[in-house]
Amino acid sequence: MELSLADQYFLKAMDWYPWNLEFVTENLQYALSYDDEHSHAWCLMGMLYMYQFKNFESAKPCFEKALQHNHRNSEIYEHFILLNIWNANYDHAKKLIDFAIKIKGVDHCKLHRLHSKIEESEGNYKTATQLLKQATVVATSESCIAIIEQDIKRIKTKEKVLSSMLRKNKKDTKKSLKKGVKKKK
């Protein structure tokens, strides 16, 4: 079986990503000129815009085109979901997770971690922790479990800091109320 020219150019781009961005960009453009429906090339183009150029507005249509041409390509979802999280578009990210979780071959551990990031960003620390525990159950490597443990530790730290801030604010409010009552007398 012979690889298409688009596949060959995509593989060249993939091989050099992210070390030689000029070469990557050139080969992605060739790949897409030979096959403008090449979902892997569109995904890598989205990654290039997202991670290297921090151009989130240009990354979004790349991921959308990649999904349009192959909505079963599980690799696209991880990056597109993260892009939506970075843009605080949590509803869209959750919809993508709901769809992606049904795809064969998708990394359930990563999806649970991404869903956890959404919940953490929204201040739902308990739900975020539960999702991370689910991710631990489906994790397939020690390194993934170590990352999950760090995530849980970070969330617990946030909970402690938030609790401390709330207690301090409550005390400060009581003090200011007492001062206000004394001044009136």
Question: How do the strands and helices of this protein lay out in sequence?
Answer:
Blueprint: H1 5-16, H2 21-34, H3 39-52, H4 56-69, H5 74-86, H6 90-100, H7 108-121, H8 125-138, H9 142-184
Shape: elongated
Distance between the termini: 92 Å
Q: In the residues, how many domains can be counted?
A: 2
- CATH level-1 class of the largest domain: Mainly Alpha
Major β-sheet profile: none
Please indicate the percent range of residues in DSSP E strands (runs of 2 or more). Answer: under 5%
Count of strand segments: 0
Low-confidence segments, given as residue ranges, are: none
Integer-rounded radius of gyration: 23 Å
DSSP summary: helix tally = 9
| Arithmetic mean of pLDDT | 94
The structure class reads mainly alpha
Structural overview:
This protein is an all-alpha fold. The protein folds into two domains: 1-106, Alpha Horseshoe (Serine Threonine Protein Phosphatase 5, Tetratricopeptide repeat); 108-185. The protein is built from nine helices and no strands. The protein has helices at residues 5-16, 21-34, 39-52, 56-69, 74-86, 90-100, 108-121, 125-138, 142-184. α3 runs antiparallel to α4 (56-69) and α6 packs antiparallel against α7 (108-121). The chain is elongated, with a radius of gyration of 23 Å.
